[in-house]
Amino acid sequence: MTHDDASKPEYMRRIRSFVLREGRMTPAQQRAFDEHWARFGIDYTGTAQDYAARFGRQAPLVMEIGFGNGEALAWASEHDQARDYLGIEVHGPGVGRLMNALAARDASNVRLYKHDAVEVLEHEIAPGTLAEARIWFPDPWHKKRHNKRRIIQPEFVALLASRMAPDGLLHLATDWQPYAEYMLEVMEAAPDWRNQLGPGQYAEKPEWRIETHFERRGLKLGHGVWDLLYRKA
Ligand SMILES: C[S@@+](CC[C@H](N)C(=O)[O-])C[C@H]1O[C@@H](n2cnc3c(N)ncnc32)[C@H](O)[C@@H]1O
């Protein structure tokens, strides 16, 4: 353990919210990295980034963590050209697939990390940077002994709040009711966030979130869907 690790809160030090099962990339996804990473990708360096310089303009920045195959991010960024989008995902095939979609529409308002979002937030995103943050259908870690691996934890939402611009919006969604209840519990207790709908309330699904792959999977299993909207207090 490095000295830096020792100074981190317990959650940040030990817990990873993902297991990397790198499925094989298809030739098209591999080609996406070869051809498009220089344009859409940001290599993790562990130092604060100047996103306005990367995008070549000063626009509000929307971040999505764990975008999966990227369909929701592709859609949202195409229909919201006045803002810039930062996607963070550890799963290579999903990043490749999204880059192909972005290249097909010649997108200029999206950049991607293939890295752990907790580390990106800690080291690359300066305080006060984000206008909006989205975490849609994060891994629910169903088993009680795995609940601590959920990305939504008090320490994590405090870190996230510190990276938000004043009045910045956080949008969470899940299809797993016990995780929805846990998200609500963590967020209601967080001093840096206030529920946009009023204390303890879930939100209606906003029109900017299209149905995602994991949402469809949950709906097929008969799950409900819960959206939560919080503003930085
Ligand atoms: C259940 S999937 C949901 C994907 C997508 N949002 C959807 O709704 O279809 C959760 C995703 O979060 C990613 N993920 C989990 N923890 C992460 C982290 N710390 N940093 C970046 N990505 C993460 C996983 O690789 C996975 O693709």
From TrEMBL:
Residues annotated as signal peptide: none
Residues annotated for substrate binding in this entry: K143, D175, T212, H213, F214, E215
Enzyme class: transferase
Catalytic reaction equation(s): guanosine(46) in tRNA + S-adenosyl-L-methionine = N(7)-methylguanosine(46) in tRNA + S-adenosyl-L-homocysteine
Keyword Transferase found: yes
EC annotation from Swiss-Prot or TrEMBL: 2.1.1.33
Span list, region Interaction with RNA: 145-150
Domain of life of the organism encoding this protein: Bacteria
Binding locations of S-adenosyl-L-methionine: E64, E89, D116, D139
Pfam families for this protein: Methyltransf_4 (PF02390)
The keyword Ion transport is assigned to this record: no
GO molecular function term, any single one: tRNA (guanine(46)-N7)-methyltransferase activity
Gene3D superfamilies xrefs: Vaccinia Virus protein VP39 (3.40.50.150)
Pathway: tRNA modification; N(7)-methylguanine-tRNA biosynthesis
Sorted UniProt keywords: Methyltransferase, S-adenosyl-L-methionine, Transferase, tRNA processing
NCBIfam families xref list: tRNA (guanosine(46)-N7)-methyltransferase TrmB (TIGR00091)
Purpose: Catalyzes the formation of N(7)-methylguanine at position 46 (m7G46) in tRNA.
Family stated for the protein in its record: Belongs to the class I-like SAM-binding methyltransferase superfamily. TrmB family.
Family annotation (PANTHER family): 3-DEOXY-D-MANNO-OCTULOSONIC-ACID TRANSFERASE/TRNA GUANINE-N 7 - -METHYLTRANSFERASE, PENTACOTRIPEPTIDE-REPEAT REGION OF PRORP DOMAIN-CONTAINING PROTEIN
Protein name (database record): tRNA (guanine-N(7)-)-methyltransferase
Organism: Dyella koreensis
Lineage of producing organism: Bacteria, Pseudomonadati, Pseudomonadota, Gammaproteobacteria, Lysobacterales
